[in-house]
Amino acid sequence: MSVKIRLQRHGKKGKPLYWIVAADARAKRDGRYLQKLGTYNPNTNPATINLNIDESVKWLQFGAQPTNTAKNILSYKGVLLKNHLKNGVLKGALSEEQAEEKFQEWLNEKCSSIDSKKSSLEKEAELQKKKALDLEKEASAKRKAKAEEALAAEEAPAAEEAPIAEEAPAAEEAPAAEEAPAAEEAPAAEEAPAAEEAPAAEEAPAAEEAPAAEEAPAAEEAPAAEEAPAAK
User: Fold this and answer.
1) 27-47: b or e for each residue (b if 16 or more CB lie within 10 Å)?
2) What is the model's pLDDT at position 206?
């Protein structure tokens, strides 16, 4: 039977969690497995890996073949190195104590590098957080300054417009407006009564002085001519 060391998917949608298992190569990916060797969580930085190193080495000794992703995980945790050292012990190239010592040295270096990476990531996260906080404070100060400027700009014209509004009565020159009565002199223009001097034209009665021409009675002085008897 051919055995594979591979990942078996679990977890929620969008947040996968993988089991590292030794399973029959003919089995489905998420089907039955022979042994669970550990877990792999890629949702953290760095990724969280829990692995049984000794059991993984045992399956490698039995001839299990890891998939590419599983091989990277095994190498990251030192399983491939320990398997290599164990093969050296079997061949007599070194003793088990020497192999274990070398493995512990590598493991300490690996742990220190992981710790330094975690600390650097934490520092970077703190710097990013501080930078974002500073930017937010700066933006808040700018917004506050703009609001104060806008408020001052609104108050200044309002304060200046008040005196101008009070001067409006003086500018209205009510006396000049009272000149309207002068415009009411239209009655004087209504000298139509003067045009009604037609009565003056009715002086025709003066022309009717014809009665003065009736002085004809003065011509009746003919009786004075009757003095002829005095000539007798």
Assistant:
1) beeeeebbbebbbbeeeeeee
2) 39
Q: Whose CA is closest to 25, among 4, 56, 8?
A: 4
The pLDDT tens digits of the residues spanning 92-106 come to 888 888 888 888 888
Domain hosting residue 35, numbered range? 3-94
Strands 15-24 and 35-41, sheet pairing: antiparallel
Task: Provide the β-strand partners of residue 21.
Answer: 6, 36
Q: Is residue 198 part of a domain?
A: no
> CA-to-CA distance for 40 and 57, rounded, in angstroms?
17
Strand partners of residue 6 = 21
Nearest to 5 by CA among 83, 114, 115: 83
Which pTM was predicted?
A: 0.53
34 domain-assigned: yes
Domain-located, residue 193: no
Can you give the CATH number for the domain in which 37 is found?
3.30.1320.10
